[in-house]
Sequence to fold (455 residues):
Amino acid sequence: MTDLKSIPTSKEDLDRYEVENIFHSWSYQPSQAPLRVVSAKGIRFVTEDGRERLDFSSCFASHNIGHQDQRVVDAIVAQAKTLCGFAPNFSTKPRATLAKMLAEVTPGDLSRCFITLGGTEANEAAIKIAHQYTGKRKIVGRYRSYHGATAVPMTLSRGDARNWAQVEGGTDWLSVPQPYCYRCMFGQKYPDCEMRCVKYVDEVMELEGGADKIAGIIFEPITGANGILIPPPEYFPMLRAVCDKYGALMIADEVMSGFGRTGKWFAIDHWNVVPDIMTMAKGTTCGYLPLGVTIARKHIGDKFKEQFFSHGATYAGHALCCAAAVRVLQIYEEDNLIENSAKMGKYLLEKATELKDKHPCVGDVRGLGLFVGIELVKNKKTREPIMPVAAKIRPGLNPKLEVAKRLGELGMMAMAANPGNTINLAPPFIVTKDEIDEGIGIMDKALEVADKYAV
Ligand SMILES: Cc1ncc(COP(=O)(O)O)c(C=O)c1O
Fold:
């Protein structure tokens, strides 16, 4: 064994370790190391080759407040000097404070939370709570969703090719379409459709055992990785009514859409609907440290005063991560960042929409807040998708990866490796109009790569 104090760390050594010693997420294992990031500030990051690039993905919609905000670094350092972490059966000040802050910012009486280390764990906890609270086994998932990489969220990530390798289980599940008006699975047009997609959920829930069997439905209020899908105004109020009819819990996965990404604290706030359970991660700590949250309404939380709460984790409510989250939440407020997401989001959508007329490959542009999707097509008229669903996991089918490569060469990162046909733009909330112009200028050039696939 090499002496651990003298592990060689030249550029070549590090590149070799990347290639030989790391599983890289959701990909064929590369023969070349990815670019190494050495620093980041605000909305830009610098790689080892000295190049600076724009981060228009906020590192998968997590770094909402921007990179290396000294206020968060100071809060982490202060907490680390006092107490990094402790066994979760004891209280710590950051954990208790964060729990109260989350109860304040989330809608309605969402108030009791379980604090984990990431989004998938938050969804695991949500599903367990739904099963334990209702005593029922079936969870409805929606096609074109992503809820995380561990077993149950992956099982419920319906219609995302990453799900195909999953040995499904941990819950009884069934699938329904989501309101994807650009490609309605019922072949309908809004508003003539009279919300066929919600009526279908009602029918499916009834046929699958209704109040006896359905524990809940999990959904991204605005679907992220699978294409910035924004439901019509009626959708969530109607879904709320269907869930109430069958005593099924509404589980809102706000891991990507939460904390101001769509211009309100949470995406579901655009519909004024209170879900029974909400999950979050990413923007809770903005990537400064890992953290995820599952929060439940009061009556659900209170039931576990009489019923054993059968879930836990050694690092549940980790003090250091909670201290980072406390400071991040204050910064959203202090700097009016959520208002800025709404304001700059309008500008970003306007500028991105201009790309639709310029590029044969752009079929649709949609967004809310700083969460804007550019949907690529082979044919604008027929709306034929630029690639099949399997493109995410099979080589050679994915023109979006060529766009991603071109973006990198031109000096920007966006969310182009996500499944589906959409490239998502999700810059940090501190972005300015000039930076949006710069990003859209780069995007304009990069899309030329995809234009050659379009007719
Ligand atoms: C909506 C949604 N839910 C859950 C997850 C999983 O979160 P994590 O990667 O932190 O486990 C993600 C990740 O992108 C997500 O977008």
Notes: Residues 48 and 356 are 35 Å apart (CA to CA).
